[in-house]
Amino acid sequence: MMEQQVREWIINSILKYNCIKIEEGISLLDPRNGLLPRDLLRLFFEIQEEFDVDFDEKDIITRRFDYIDNMVNSVLDKKV
Predict the structure, then answer these.
(1) InterPro entries in the record, alphabetically (predicted)?
(2) pTM for this structure?
(3) Cβ neighbours of residue 66 closer than 8 Å, sequence gap 6 or more
(4) Which domain range does residue 11 map to?
(5) pLDDT digits (tens, 9 = 90+) for 19-44
(6) In this structure, what CATH number is given to the domain that contains residue 60?
(7) C-beta atoms surrounding 48 within 10 Å
């Protein structure tokens, strides 16, 4: 699985529900991106289902799942 595929899937999933342009270098919870915590939680479960990965609490807290780069890297790490 390639990094760009994971990144595009995550961004498209966000757009599907929120119809907002994402600034990737800042937190998804930053007001400039406008996602709510519930949006991030929904995205978390969708990522697990789509990519057949299981994240634990440590992954979520230490990897900062509110950043797209961190989500992408976490998926890729679990798929190795």
Answers:
(1) ACP-like_sf
(2) 0.87
(3) 27, 28, 29, 40
(4) 3-79
(5) 778 898 999 999 999 899 999 999 99
(6) 1.10.1200.10
(7) 14
